[in-house]
Specification:
Layout (H helix, E strand, L loop, with lengths): L1 H80 L1
């Protein structure tokens, strides 16, 4: 009777430990997948921000070029008036 009880207790302990490890492994896999998704999302956001910065810089360069052209035209007009 003592051996049957101890064998049952040993089997119960082993089954609980293996189930616990499997659950922990599943949780760690889920966490890794979530972190991968978060990293992908962060990369996409950074790319969008980089594109927005580039677009803004190009617009600013165009505005500066237009302003310089206007200033050059104004100087030419002033010279022609004198």
């Amino acid at each position: 009777m003592k051996k049957v009880f101890l064998s049952s207790l040993l089997m119960l302990a082993l089954s609980v430990s293996f189930v616990s490890c499997r659950d922990a492994e599943n949780k760690s896999n889920d966490a890794m997948e979530e972190s991968e998704d978060a990293m992908d999302d962060a990369g996409d956001k950074l790319k969008e921000v980089g594109d927005d910065i580039q677009d803004g810089a190009e617009e600013a360069a165009d505005d500066v070029e237009d302003a310089l052209d206007d200033a050059g035209d104004a100087i030419e007009d002033a010279v022609d008036d004198n």
